[in-house]
Amino acid sequence: MDPSEVLSELISLKNQKNIDGMARFGISVDGALGIPIPELRRMAKSLGKNHSLAIELWDSGIHEARILASMVDEPSKVTESQMESWVADFDSWDICDQVCANLFSHTPFAWSKAEEWTKREAEFVKRTGFALMAVLAVHDKEAKDKDFMKLLLILKKGATDERNFVRKAVNWALRQIGKRSIALNRAALTTAWEIKDVDSKAARWIAADAIRELDSVAVKRRLSKR
Predict the structure, then answer these.
(1) Residues 67 and 94 in one domain
(2) Of 15, 17, 32, 69, which has fewest CB within 10 angstroms of its CB?
(3) Within 13 Å of residue 215, how many CA atoms lie on the same side as its CB?
(4) In the chain, which residue ranges form alpha helices assigned H by DSSP?
């Protein structure tokens, strides 16, 4: 299928009820069609990997077309310039998280961009840095514990950002790193307690939520079996 055919199919699946539901979950619905993720994954599977198609879909500006673009793009063909261009377009937490999980985390630039973006001021660029750390903690099986230890100081510094989408990503990254191994669980809990002492509403929320999960019996039991 060429880009115009793919876009036509997407538009034919528009669902206003789903769009209304997206808005209730804090998702930007500008240019949204209300197509569920499983349906987008079905389309991605039938389309296969196609870098040029991904670029065309992204440039359409359609919410779901951009998520689909992250599913069909080829990580080996993604450049730093493309990543910078796409992250500058992020306007919703779901696009941010989907692109991180489906594409950015599989590129050679994932680790460097994760750290770099957390130093930026733009809300969704900063969120992307922390979201990428969370995704790497789950999916990068080759990374060592020491690689994630280095990220904990960055998370501590980012914990005072009161913006909702940033603080939730910091929390997400802290929890995912702390569930990767026993050593990282201890280190993440130590970091969480340090964050808890910071005079910041966001920091206290991030810490309390992370400690609740990372110090739970369920997490401890699961890690002990690895």
Answers:
(1) no
(2) 17
(3) 11
(4) 3-12, 16-24, 37-47, 51-59, 63-72, 80-89, 93-102, 110-117, 123-139, 145-158, 164-178, 182-196, 201-214, 217-224
Contact (CB, 8 A) for 22 and 80: no
- What residues contact residue 108 under an 8 Å CB cut-off, 6+ apart? none
Whole-prediction pTM: 0.95
Give tens-digit pLDDT for 133-159.
999 999 999 999 999 999 999 999 999
Tokens of residue 118, six digits: 């957390």
Q: Are 214 and 112 in a shared domain? A: yes
Q: Which domain holds residue 1?
A: 1-73
Tokens coding 90: 């992020």
Rounded to an integer, what distance in angstroms lies between the CA atom of residue 175 and that of residue 207? 10
Structural domain total, the chain:
2
Which of 38, 73, 108 delimits the end of a domain? 73
User: From residue 91, how far is each of 30, 126, 143 by CA, in Å?
Assistant: 9, 12, 30
